[in-house]
Automatic annotation (TrEMBL):
Residues 81-185, 397-501 form the Sialate O-acetylesterase domain. Its EC number is 3.1.1.53. The keyword Hydrolase applies. It is an enzyme of class 3 (hydrolase). This is Sialate O-acetylesterase. SUPFAM superfamilies: Galactose-binding domain-like, SGNH hydrolase. One of its GO terms (molecular function) is sialate O-acetylesterase activity. The keyword Hydrolase applies.
Length: 620
């Protein structure tokens, strides 16, 4: 935890701890302030410096009495506000992967913003130290790998408060909330007790085997086995026994179950004579997962995980044949993903005048190469990440927590109503600083738009996140308007960080700002109308980029929802539909990727809601 260039939390008694000879006296000096502590029988010690205001840089000197050679000196230390940033991949997503990366990296000169990035690790029991990581200054070299959300959050807070900001980044993509919650807390709930007890059968050898399998796993993903790339993409390769599938679609629509591994896809196309001697453009839409593209046996591209691959490629004129040509794709089908995403018009080959569609029948085969090894992904097991990546941080002084997670819990969204408050209480109990601010990001809009009102796991997860606002000193940044239908990782992390910082300004810094979009308060029925009242209306309700409100649906006692017309009247919205004579319920932005546009005049989106309490699809 402790190193050169770290940031320590202002306005609290600053904890510092370590190990030394049992029974010895530890003397520590921060700046000009000194204090001491004795080690216990196990050699552990902890001491506290009195409160400091923001400032620095300071040196921290620590020595064991009578052993001057044991002295430690840390330099460049600042006193400011420290935030623990945690969650899964959308919190982990790097500045260099997010929107406008080159420009943002070039201007990232904030020496008073420092990051400590905790390396990924899993452990069966709570640890006193983490695997690796050191404090880094925010500059054009280091910022690339920082969490984009946490960086943009820190940048705004630093500018607003004019104090040093430290971010402890402890994140791991794809992980559920249970892995970040302690064993003790999960034993206290019937909902999690059985899962946490199942961990007791694990041993360290399991982790070692999984690690070796992971190396083999990615070797297969990135390196075609058995020279498959030298034979399968060739035009004369015999694919007569391969089954056919209509493209575009994703793996869950293939009818091949929960297959994970490498899949080859092939399509023969006849090109017009007008294409001869020309460079062509081949567009394959937005493929899921890692893939390599081949044209007449020649590799055109090979994507790398998290590389944000292109969708359009140039086919050199020298590869183009009159008549029949062959397109082949080697694709990783992983974690339920894989395939070519719609719409069909985005899959084609052509020149500046003519496009030939590549949608339609493709041939595919799943067992061309060896099966990938089974990966247990122990980072997803309960308490594993708490043990290795959270417990070692306690009780380092923090201002509060920022959190972006939930995608990995979408199928148990109703249970998240219990799991999320459990984590918040768990961390607060361990830190012994009362109800520290806990600020989080609600899931963005994602996946295809539904033409009709429908049920949604993601909507139910968002609802669980909204309900968690009932916990004291919590704040939520709604980003239902800046997601990406085709990517679970929307790139506009600047706005995510800004909205999260707004919640911090209100909850942690006592600033009188509007930090939320409109939030559902209550409703009344008046004839065929349902009248919705809101809080957090700010300067007033408004419609974004349209003449009419979108995203509202309404239902009667048959529980069947229809799209509704809606209009603003003061701080209320009046909702109705000709198809519902006796309305009893309204939903807003209730979908994976809703089309919705209610905002307040500050531009913050209305938080998705429903007025009914009918059983959802994730409620067991």
């Amino acid at each position: 935890m402790f190193g050169d260039n770290m940031v320590l939390q202002r306005s609290i008694n600053i904890p510092v701890w370590g190990n030394a000879t049992p029974g010895s006296l530890i003397v520590a000096t921060l700046g000009k302030v000194s204090t001491n502590a004795k080690t216990d029988k196990d050699g552990k010690w902890i001491l506290y410096f009195s409160k400091f205001g923001a400032g620095g840089p300071y040196d921290l000197k620590i020595s064991e009495s009578g052993k001057p050679y044991s002295a430690i000196k840390l330099t460049g230390i600042l006193i400011g506000d420290v935030w623990l940033a945690s969650g899964q991949s959308n919190m982990e997503w790097q500045v260099q992967q997010a929107r406008d990366a080159p420009n943002e990296i070039a201007k990232a000169d904030f020496p008073q913003i420092r990051f400590l990035m905790v390396e990924h690790d899993i452990k069966l029991t709570p640890q006193s130290d983490f695997l690796a990581g050191k404090w880094k200054l925010c500059d054009t070299n280091n910022v690339k790998q920082f969490s984009a959300v946490a960086y943009y959050f820190a940048r705004k807070i630093h500018k607003e408060q004019n104090v040093p900001i430290g971010i402890i980044q402890s994140t791991w993509g794809g992980t559920p909330i249970e892995s970040w919650t302690s064993r003790e807390m999960q034993l206290s709930s019937p909902a999690t007790k059985a899962k946490i007890l199942a961990n007791d059968t694990l041993v360290r050898n399991d982790f070692a085997k999984d690690s070796l399998n992971m190396i083999r796993f990615w070797d297969i993903v990135y390196h075609p086995q058995g020279n498959a790339d030298k034979t399968v993409p060739l035009p004369d390769y015999d694919d007569s026994g391969w089954p056919a599938v209509e493209m575009p679609r994703v793996i869950k629509d293939f009818g091949i179950g929960k297959y994970e591994g490498m899949m080859w896809l092939r399509k023969r196309i006849v090109l017009p004579r007008s294409f001869a001697g020309k460079n062509l453009v081949l567009n394959i839409g937005h493929p899921e997962m890692n893939y390599s593209l081949y044209f007449n046996g020649v590799e055109i591209c090979k994507t790398i995980w998290n590389s944000n691959p292109k969708q359009s490629y140039t086919i050199p004129a020298g590869l183009v044949k009159n008549g029949e040509n062959t397109v082949a794709i080697r694709m990783a089908m992983l974690w339920g993903g894989g395939g070519l995403n719609p719409p069909a018009e985005n899959i084609y080959i052509g020149d500046e005048n003519t496009k030939i569609s590549l949608a339609g029948k493709w041939l595919y085969k799943t067992n061309v190469e060896p099966a990938i090894p089974k990966i247990h992904n122990y980072q997803n097991y309960p308490a594993m990440l708490f043990n290795a990546m959270i417990n070692p941080l306690i009780p380092f002084g923090v201002k509060g927590f920022i959190w972006y997670q939930g995608e990995a819990n979408d199928t148990e969204a109703y249970l998240y109503r219990e799991l999320f408050p459990m984590l918040i209480n768990d961390w607060r109990i361990h830190w012994h600083h009362g109800n520290l601010p806990f600020l989080y990001v609600q899931l963005a809009n994602f996946k295809k738009e539904d033409p009709l009102p429908s049920e949604s796991e993601w909507a139910e997860l968002r609802e669980a996140q909204t309900l968690t606002l009932s916990q004291p000193n919590t704040g939520m940044a709604c980003i239902i308007d800046i997601g990406d239908a085709n990517s679970i990782h929307p790139t506009n992390k600047q706005e995510v960080g800004r909205r999260l910082a707004l919640t911090a300004e209100k909850k942690a810094y006592g600033k009188n700002v509007n930090a939320s979009g409109p939030m559902y308060k209550n409703f009344v029925v008046k004839g065929k109308d349902i009248i919705i009242s809101f809080t957090e209306t700010g300067l007033g309700l408004a419609i974004r980029n349209s003449a009419s409100l979108k995203g509202f649906s309404i239902a009667g006692d048959d529980k069947k929802f229809y799209w509704a017309s809606a209009r603003i009247k003061g701080d209320k919205v009046i909702v109705s539909s000709d198809k519902v004579n006796v309305p009893i319920a309204v939903r807003y932005a209730w979908a994976d990727n809703p089309v919705c546009n209610l905002v307040n005049k500050e531009g913050l989106p209305a938080v998705p809601f429903r007025t009914d309490g009918w059983k959802g699809i994730t409620q067991k």
